[in-house]
């Protein structure tokens, strides 16, 4: 075990927070999955789901370990190569989505021969964030013009968002927000950001008008997320979303200390209790105290991302940490805000806690790249420490040699004085 811990490179605090969140996830996932077990098998035995979640977490940490071993500057080129591949996957997802648990599954594709579903938009977001960081770091030394950035930066961004938007508005909005944050931190001109935001609003409005005018033209989830926004902004109580009502009941039932592990009642009525609404189950079982502890872990992880970005010695490394780390925290905050009805239902999972293989694995890929950046800083620090150690050792050898030379000279003078008594008399 000690050897395994020693083999982990990078920021040990990030490793610790990630491990804590993953370990904690077993308790609410095991509890919330009993509803799925009862509906599917009639037994209520969620042990199979617990083993499945354990396997997904182990695979995720294996991916995390392997990715963090790769030098992070390799991802600069990888992002450029993978972006067209991601577009093909997104198009395939829109055209060949399958049904998952009765929902429109245009967000997922099924990996052949394995049977595992995979959400392509999560991979697209990681590739896009690294691509944007690559562009901003490359243009650091030369002035950015709107015309060049429109073609080199924003065209790939908008192509990616167009392929995600019809099926997954919340993810498209999250990606666009994080890209804007990233370019702002990367000192992209504010006047250009304003133009892009305006263009984005106009494009979204046009898309909504077309979807309203031709509902059959977009057979995916356009009507669903438009209805969710309408319901959220409506004041009529009978239009409140069923899932939100059950989530609020769960949170209210939890009180300060909760009902206790495994004693949730609303898990039997709340759809997606082990994924999208797992935070409501956490608060119901562990109370406000448990909910605040989970929130605190994400905030501490955010603080550590800020520290890691500050320590990175290259602009690309700083932007990669910000571009991959902040969306994880923002997604967690979005999931919690949905549970307490601060936001409309979005379908965003709670990173590292919600069940779901592809979401866990994509989060682990992002964390692996971040740890690769911190590993580089650690390696530089080790090299500097080793260099200083060698210099100190060399200085000690020099000092020792000088002392020996001085001692030898004194000894030679002593021998000369003894061999020539007249020198002693003359010296007197």
UniProtKB/TrEMBL annotation:
Pfam families reported in the protein's UniProt record: FTSW_RODA_SPOVE
Arranged from A to Z, the UniProt key words for this protein are: Cell shape, Coiled coil, Glycosyltransferase, Membrane, Peptidoglycan synthesis, Transferase, Transmembrane, Transmembrane helix
GO CC, one annotated term: plasma membrane
* Coiled-coil stretches noted in the UniProt entry, renumbered to this chain: 371-400
Q: Give the Enzyme Commission number.
A: 2.4.99.28
Which GO terms of type biological process are on file?
Answer: cell division; peptidoglycan biosynthetic process; regulation of cell shape
Q: Please write the reaction equations for the catalytic activity of this protein.
A: [GlcNAc-(1->4)-Mur2Ac(oyl-L-Ala-gamma-D-Glu-L-Lys-D-Ala-D-Ala)](n)-di-trans,octa-cis-undecaprenyl diphosphate + beta-D-GlcNAc-(1->4)-Mur2Ac(oyl-L-Ala-gamma-D-Glu-L-Lys-D-Ala-D-Ala)-di-trans,octa-cis-undecaprenyl diphosphate = [GlcNAc-(1->4)-Mur2Ac(oyl-L-Ala-gamma-D-Glu-L-Lys-D-Ala-D-Ala)](n+1)-di-trans,octa-cis-undecaprenyl diphosphate + di-trans,octa-cis-undecaprenyl diphosphate + H(+)
**InterPro entries for this protein:** FtsW/RodA
Give the membrane topology. Multi-pass membrane protein
Q: Which domain of life is it from?
A: Bacteria
Query: Mostly located where?
Result: membrane
Keyword Amino-acid biosynthesis included in the entry's annotation: no
**What subcellular compartments does it reside in?**
Membrane
GO molecular function terms attached to this record? lipid-linked peptidoglycan transporter activity; peptidoglycan glycosyltransferase activity
Lyase in keyword set:
no
Q: Where are the transmembrane segments?
A: 13-38, 50-68, 74-95, 116-137, 157-185, 192-214, 286-307, 319-340, 352-373
PANTHER family, per the entry? CELL CYCLE PROTEIN, PEPTIDOGLYCAN GLYCOSYLTRANSFERASE FTSW-RELATED
| Family note | Belongs to the SEDS family. FtsW subfamily.
What this protein is called in its record is Probable peptidoglycan glycosyltransferase FtsW
Q: Which organism is it from?
A: Flavobacterium sangjuense
């Amino acid at each position: 075990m000690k050897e395994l811990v020693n083999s982990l490179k990078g920021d040990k605090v990030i490793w610790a927070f990630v491990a804590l969140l993953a370990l904690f996830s077993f308790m609410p996932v095991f509890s919330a999955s009993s509803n799925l077990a009862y509906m599917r098998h009639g037994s209520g035995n969620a042990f199979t789901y617990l083993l499945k979640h354990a396997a997904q977490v182990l695979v995720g940490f294996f991916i995390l370990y392997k990715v963090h071993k790769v030098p992070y500057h390799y991802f600069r080129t990888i992002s450029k190569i993978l972006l067209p591949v991601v577009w093909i996957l997104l198009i395939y997802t829109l055209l060949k989505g399958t049904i998952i648990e009765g929902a429109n599954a245009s967000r997922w594709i099924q990996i052949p021969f394995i049977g595992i579903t995979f959400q392509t938009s999560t991979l697209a977001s990681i590739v896009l964030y690294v691509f944007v960081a690559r562009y901003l770091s490359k243009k650091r030394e030369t002035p950015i013009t709107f015309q060049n950035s429109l073609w080199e930066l924003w065209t790939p961004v908008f192509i990616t968002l167009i392929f995600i938007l019809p099926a997954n508005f919340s993810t498209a909005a999250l990606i666009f927000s994080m890209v804007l944050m990233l370019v702002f931190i990367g000192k992209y001109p504010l006047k250009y950001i304003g133009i892009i935001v305006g263009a984005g609003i106009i494009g979204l409005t046009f898309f909504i008008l077309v979807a309203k005018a031709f509902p059959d033209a977009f057979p995916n989830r356009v009507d669903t997320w438009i209805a969710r926004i309408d319901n959220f902004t409506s004041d009529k109580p009978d239009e409140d979303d069923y899932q939100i009502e059950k989530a609020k009941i769960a949170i209210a039932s939890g009180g300060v200390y909760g009902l206790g592990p495994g004693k949730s009642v609303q898990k039997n009525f709340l759809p997606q209790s082990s994924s999208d609404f797992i935070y409501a189950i956490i608060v119901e079982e562990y109370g406000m105290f448990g909910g605040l502890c989970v929130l605190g872990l994400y905030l501490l992880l955010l603080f550590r991302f800020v520290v890691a970005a500050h320590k990175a010695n290259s602009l690309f490394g700083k932007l990669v940490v910000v571009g991959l780390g902040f969306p994880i925290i923002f997604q967690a905050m979005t999931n919690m805000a949905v549970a307490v009805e601060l936001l409309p239902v979005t379908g965003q999972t709670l990173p590292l806690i919600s069940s779901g293989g592809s979401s866990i694995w994509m989060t682990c890929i992002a964390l692996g790249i971040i740890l690769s950046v911190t590993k580089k800083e650690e390696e530089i620090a080790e090299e500097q420490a080793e260099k200083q150690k060698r210099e100190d050792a060399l200085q000690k050898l020099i000092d020792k040699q000088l002392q020996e030379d001085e001692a030898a000279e004194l000894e030679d003078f002593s021998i000369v004085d003894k061999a020539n008594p007249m020198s002693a008399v003359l010296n007197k």
